[in-house]
Amino acid sequence: MAGEYVLVRRALWADDVFTLLSPMAQWLYFATLSAPSMELNGVCEWRRKHILKRASALTEEVLDMAELELRERRVMVVDDETEEAFLIRFMHEDGLLKQPNMGVAVHKLYPRIASPKIRGVFVWELQRLQMNEPDLGAFKHDKNGRPPVLMQLLGNNSIDPWGADFDV
After folding, report:
1. Which 3 state secondary structure label does DSSP give 53?
2. Helices 23-33 and 60-72 meet at what angle, rounded to 10?
3. Three-state DSSP class for 11?
4. Of 3, 26, 121, 168, which has the most beta carbons under 10 Å away?
């Protein structure tokens, strides 16, 4: 499990992807972001009965609509079979990969992802981050010229969540 606190950038309120979400989808995003099982890699348990207990008036229908909205907008990937969810931009938003040691921590969490679908989207997001933000500490070679362990994951199977064959 990740730390006691989560980082929420104020710039989130200027992000069209987030501000165009319905209030319930925004709530579900924050509920997922701050879930007790949320890990440093943006993956957490996805147990619907647990989520329904987090707000007194939350119904299955409302949860279904908010979840579908987050899935369709590619904010979150859910694997119902493995009961896991992945907040796609979590590592970018959190900024944790600025620190080289966090790359090691994220690398260690990779084998714990049971869902092949979530592992694939996770690798896709790492590839996107490495391409768009190559100066992040987690992607830099150490002072002895050794590549970071996080780079080992970049060659794994990746799944583009915007691909035509992606199953929401």
Report:
1. coil
2. 80
3. helix
4. 121
Per-domain residue ranges of the chain: 10-90, 94-155
Residues belonging to the chain: 168
Supply the pLDDT for residue 6.
77
Check if CATH label 1.10.10 holds for domain 10-90.
yes
CB neighbour burial string for 8-17, b if at least 16 within 10 angstroms, e if fewer: eeeeeeeeee
Distance CA(70)–CA(29), nearest Å, equals 8
Closest CA to 100 of 42, 146, 133, 139: 139
What is the overall mean pLDDT for the chain? 92
Q: How far apart are CA 145 and CA 47, in angstroms?
A: 43
Mean of pLDDT values over 133-143: 89
What does pTM read for this prediction? Answer: 0.92
Quickly state the pLDDT bin for 96 (edges 50, 70, 90).
confident
